[in-house]
Structure formats: structure tokens, C-alpha cells
Amino acid sequence: MTRLHLHLLSDSTGETLENIAKAALAQYDAVDTVRHFWPMVRTEAHLERILQEIAQNPGLVIFTLVNAATRRTLEQRCRTLGLPAVAPLDPVNDALSALLGQQAKARPGRQHVLDAAYFARVDAIQFTIAHDDGIGQDEWEEADIMLAGVSRSSKTPTSIYLANRGYKVANIPVVVESPPPRALYELKHPLIVGLTTSADRLIAIRRNRLLSLNQATETSYVEQESVSREIAFARRMFADNGWPVIDVTRRSIEETAAAVIALLNDRDAGDDRREGRA
Predict the structure, then answer these.
(1) How far is the C-alpha of 123 from the C-alpha of 164, rounded, in Å?
(2) How far is CA 180 from CA 141, 149, 191, in A?
(3) pTM attached to this predicted model
(4) Structural domains for the chain
């Protein structure tokens, strides 16, 4: 196994860098990564302490520093140490600068300003938490997205992920013995999306859930015929109402959320065309 020291330097929270590093490392197998995370790097003195650590643990340096003097010092010292130093946002900023005809504002953490979008995201998260698992049907019409699916089909984690992207989401379990309320079928604003999965995957997830709760695993909740009947019931409901369906069997939460957003964008674009706004 290859060992890699990865130094992440940011003059803000470092969230962007962590996501970039995570996405890149996912493409490589058998890498023992030692992450050295350095957020809020805004002074030469702070950078000097970090450079000492980098010298002791040489590896790849990835940074997002907007202060010209600070990043120049980092780049020069990395060249002296013979280490690669990568600024992943530079190509994007260069392209934007050329297209927009203006220079980027050298303001650390500008994307984290408490603007209207930030508060809208907080509102979406609060709404989503308050409308989990079929709760609050009187306010479902306020949702952007409604997720429906059998128990343990990733409704809640997908809802929370979407909420962090700024979407108000409600979700409801599909239960054979307890059909959804009429309110679900009367919704106009939310995009209703059905989530489904394979019986084998669902049974495995449910068994693990029962084991974590120290409950018996020999119940209809994990019985093959019963689970298959649940899934078939849900699929029939989705088809009868013309709701789009996403199979989450081999999808991560992020992939499922991306598919939901694509469906929402397609619907909204279609509405715009019909109303002559496109």
C-alpha cells in the first residue's frame, strides 16, 4: 500500500479543498493517505509553522489561498523542497476572468458570506427535518420535492442531502397496510419522486438495522416474499400516478440526489417552455 502525506491549506474553512481531495482520491486504490488539514491560513507566521510540518512530512500540497504574498511564499518553499503544490481553483478562476472581463475578488471565504442563499438553505434544512417520515402533511405543498419509498430506501439521508443543497424536501414511507393520505395525491408544487431498490439489498439493509437495535431478524420485515410484495406495491403506486422513479440499488446518496435534481430541473424547464418563458 502506498502512503501519501496530503497537505490541505486554505485561508477559509477548507471545505472546498476537502471535497476536491475526496473526489480525486476516490479514483485510486490502496493508498494510505495521511491528511494534514490547515484551515484559516492568513498570516506569514501561521504559514511558516505549517511549512515546517510540510518539510517533516513531504507530500502533495493542495491550496486555496487568495493572498498573493502568502501563496507566493508557499509556492517558492515547495519548489525548494521539491514538492508539488497545486491550486485547483486557478484554472476555473482564469476561465471566468477571461469570459467575464474582470478580476476575481481576493477575499478569503467569500462563498461563506451570510447572504440570502445561506438563510434559504438553513430554512430548507429546518423544513426537511420537520417533514421527515410522513410528518406535517398540511405543509407538504410548500416542499420543492417529495420522496416516497418503502422503509429503508434512503429517503431520509437523500432528503437531508438535498436540503443542504437548498431544497425543501418532505418524505413519506410507502406501507402496504397503510396507504398514504389523500394529501399526497393532491400536491401541485412539489416534484414527487419514487425511490425503489432491489429486494436483496433492502433485506440486507433491514437486517443490519435490526441487528444494530438488538431486535429479532426473523420477521416479515426482512422476509423475501413480504419485501418483494412491498416493492411491487410501491412501484405500482408510482406508475399509477405517473411519478418518476429512481432505483437506488447501486447509487450513493449523492448520486440519487443528483438524479432528483435533474428531474426537478427538467420539469421546471418544461414548465418554462409551456409558459413561453424559455
Answers:
(1) 10
(2) 15, 11, 16
(3) 0.66
(4) 2-111 (3.40.50), 116-274 (3.40.50)
- List pLDDT tens digits, range 178-235: 989 999 999 999 999 999 999 999 999 999 888 888 887 778 899 999 999 999 999 9
With beta carbons less than 8 A apart as the criterion, state whether 117 and 166 touch.
yes
Flag the least confident range among 5-9, 195-199, 216-220, 260-264.
216-220
Mean pLDDT, range 241-248, rounded to an integer:
97
Pairing of strands 191-196, 145-149: parallel
